[in-house]
Amino acid sequence: xxxxxEVIAKSLVDHPEDVRVQEIEKDxxxxxxxxxxxxxxxKVIGKQGRIAKAIRTVVSAAAAKENKKVIxxxx
Length: 75
What we know:
Elements: H1 2-12, E1 20-25, E2 30-35, H2 41-45, H3 50-65, E3 70-74
Parallel strand pairs: 2-3
Antiparallel strand pairs: 1-2
């Protein structure tokens, strides 16, 4: 799952070397903290948050196959 978030983010940004994904396991879910270069923040979030929502949807669908709940935080 972490690799999926990384691949999607790196394909969107101008500075893929600055993409970092940290996985934090909580009681009932997994949090993926995605951090990118400040210049690329708009590309990852998108207009009205559409790209961020799409990333979250794809990751949630992949996690549903494994019976997991995930949260993607972008910073």
